[in-house]
Amino acid sequence: MKTKNYDIIYLNNNKPFVSEKIKTEVVMFVPSPVPWESRRKAVYTQFEREQWTKEKVILIFIIGNKSGEKLMNVVNTSAVVKYPYASNVIVDCRDQGDEYDNPDDTSGTTCKVYEALKYIVANYESKYVWRGADDSFVNLRYFFLHVEPTIPKSRLYLGRLRRTTSPEPDLMLSNQPRLQSVFGIYQFGQYMHGMGFLLSYDVADFVASLKIPPHLTWCEDVMVGMWLLPFQITFMDYPGFHEPQTFGPAERNRDYLLIHRMTHEQWQQIDENGRLNF
């Protein structure tokens, strides 16, 4: 039986945290802005349908409460829906937007991911941490049956890898001179595409435990890659991450680990095996 969880947690720089960590196998967190309730509902409805216990999977939505230049404005989060088997964690981050060529460390998703990892590591002990998305379906059944037994248990960063061994126009720092002055490099390095990625718990703990925080600029997927590149961490390009803009519509009755840019119709078509059946 599940235990109901109506948590809504507000983080104001200091972490409110339990004296004993909750043990589970996977913590999945989903950064999402306040206005996108319909997307959160779709993710949550599928999660509830799968009937995971807290000992197996924890679901957390990460919501920002700031906006405006230098985060001077406060976002009203009172309308965020509290779901029975998920937690909403409200963080002091920009709720929406990744600022181009702004070195102020105020990008929304980058801040949300960093604060999420700090919160998760302080409150949970798990094997893996999934960074989901509010428009992605992560097939957890497939993950536990076919992926988890085959992948490293530590020092792991898994997803759909974008390699950067040649010049990539959108990643060149000459396009963002203020950021280039901060990082002092030609272009950003390799990273997992933003549809979602997996960290082993020790990697999440490593980032969360940094005594000097990383830069929280620009797009979060690129920045997480930057945080991890210098260290002895496996960047694993794993099959089964589906991006419809690249590969076209997801196929019927096919096993995917993750499907990005889910439509309303697709959320209704997921069968008991985590396949689209339409």
Overview of the structural elements:
There is one protein chain. This protein has 278 residues and is α/β, with parallel strands linked by helices. 26% of the residues lie in helices and 22% in strands. It has one domain: Spore Coat Polysaccharide Biosynthesis Protein SpsA, Chain A, CATH 3.90.550. β4 and β5 form a beta hairpin. It starts with 7 loop residues before the first strand and ends in a 10-residue tail after the last helix.
How would you summarize the topology of this molecule?
Elements: E1 8-10, E2 22-23, E3 26-31, H1 37-50, E4 57-67, E5 73-74, E6 87-94, H2 108-123, E7 124-125, E8 128-131, E9 137-138, H3 140-147, E10 156-159, E11 161-162, H4 177-183, E12 191-192, E13 197-200, H5 201-208, H6 220-228, E14 234-237, E15 241-242, H7 244-247, E16 258-259, H8 264-268
Helix pairs in contact: 2-5, 2-6
Number of helices in the DSSP assignment: 8
**Rounded mean pLDDT score:** 94
Q: What is the strand tally?
A: 16
What is the number of domains? 1
Strand-pairing-aware structural class? alpha/beta
Largest sheet entry: 9 strands, mixed
The best one-word shape is globular
Rg over CA atoms, rounded to whole Å, is: 18 Å
Strand content: 15-25%
For this structure, the quaternary state is single chain
Extract low-pLDDT stretches.
Answer: 1-6
CATH third-level topology: Spore Coat Polysaccharide Biosynthesis Protein SpsA, Chain A
CATH architecture: Alpha-Beta Complex
User: Which class in CATH terms?
Assistant: Alpha Beta
Order of helices and strands: EEEHEEEHEEEHEEHEEHHEEHEH
